[in-house]
Automatic annotation (TrEMBL):
The lineage of its organism: Bacteria, Pseudomonadati, Pseudomonadota, Alphaproteobacteria, Hyphomicrobiales. It comes from Prosthecomicrobium pneumaticum. GO terms for biological process: phosphorelay signal transduction system. CDD domains: REC. The keyword DNA-binding does not apply. Residues 12-128 form the Response regulatory domain. Keywords: ATP-binding, Kinase, Nucleotide-binding, Phosphoprotein, Transferase. One of its GO terms (molecular function) is ATP binding. The keyword Transferase applies. Its EC number is 2.7.13.3. This is histidine kinase.
Length: 337
């Protein structure tokens, strides 16, 4: 389906012309433009300079020969005040050397008064070239922003990977245990990045993060993990941090908690609190049916990651309850950070 055309605003044209007759002839030819232009006429240096200072013109037309003033001076003033605005000479006589010099100094085109029929086409071409330049600059600025954002994200990701690697090493008893834990955590990070890439690094839903992180741990044909809650959009930074937290919780449940037992299950529920200045999510991770739980004797990497991620990455709080019937983790965090 083609995109609907957007109506163009009438071009504003500054016309520097001292002759009323020539000005009327030029205006008559400009009426052929669609839409019809808005013409502001200046007859001398003072009102021309005032018009340039006011600005807002799409094209500048100037005679070359003016009493007490000439076209080259008008061109210099225009390039100083509005360097991106097309400047076209409209003159009765313009020699080859003057024409070449005017182009060197920034003129866009010239039209002889004997051939004013060329003027509408020259203006349309100049406006089209201006639009192309603006579009090119806009694309270049967007590319610069994307490169800067990519660099920022890569640095953040590498810093996160290094932190995960260091902390996993501290909590591992052997090389094999370190390798298994590190690969598992990096895989969780990669899955979160893949989901954000699919969403074009825009907001993604909390349910999608949960499903993407927890589905690999579901037993075939069994509903061992239940999800319940409204649709909540998450910003990319929040989604990455939450995916790592969830991975730690589910890994712990598989090794020591409810999912290590045939009858165990995990229920994740959440609500959205929009009563304050920022939307907050209240998420509860509840395990049941597994082996009896005892509080850990020391804080491992998993609990440290949960605590630090929720506080520093999600500006929230975490409450881990190692109840005998199953771990309960309550998280409260903002949707966008």
């Amino acid at each position: 389906m083609s995109r609907p055309s957007v109506p163009q605003a009438p071009p504003r044209i500054l016309l520097l012309e001292d002759s009323p007759l020539d000005a009327d002839l030029i205006a008559a030819h400009l009426d052929r433009l669609v839409p019809a232009p808005d013409i502001v006429r200046a007859t001398g240096r003072a009102d021309y300079a005032a018009a340039l200072e006011a600005g807002g013109f799409d094209v500048i037309l100037s005679d070359y020969s003016l009493p007490g003033f000439d076209g080259m001076m008008a061109l210099d003033l225009a390039k100083a005040a509005a360097p991106d605005t097309p400047f076209i000479f409209v003159s009765g006589v313009l020699g080859e050397e003057i024409a070449i010099d005017s182009f060197r100094r920034g003129a866009t085109d010239y039209v002889l008064k004997q051939r004013l029929i060329r003027l509408p086409a020259a203006i349309e071409r100049a406006l089209a070239e201006t639009r192309e330049r603006e579009e090119r600059r806009r694309a270049e600025r967007q590319l610069e922003l994307l490169v800067a954002e990519l660099s920022h994200r890569v640095k953040n990701t590498l810093a996160m990977v290094m932190s995960i690697a260091r902390r996993t090493a501290r909590g591992s008893g052997s090389v094999a245990e370190y390798e298994e834990a590190l690969i598992s955590r990096l895989r969780a990070l990669a899955e979160a990045h893949a989901l954000l890439f699919e969403a074009n690094w825009g907001d993604t839903s909390l349910r999608q993060i949960l499903e993407r992180t927890l589905d690999p741990f579901r037993r075939d044909g069994e509903r061992t993990i239940g999800l319940s809650g409204p649709r909540v959009p998450l910003a990319p930074k929040a989604a990455l941090a939450l995916s790592l937290i969830l991975h730690e919780l589910v890994t712990n449940a598989m090794k020591y908690g409810a999912l290590s037992s045939a009858n165990g299950r995990v229920d994740v529920s959440w609500t959205l609190d929009e009563s304050g200045g920022r939307p907050m999510v209240d998420l509860v991770w509840r395990e049941s049916g597994g082996p009896e739980v005892a509080p850990p004797t020391r804080a491992g990497f998993g609990s440290t990651l949960v605590d630090r991620s929720i506080r520093y990455e999600l500006d929230g709080t975490a409450d881990l309850d190692f109840a005998p019937t199953g771990v309960v983790c309550r998280l409260r965090f903002v949707t966008a950070v």
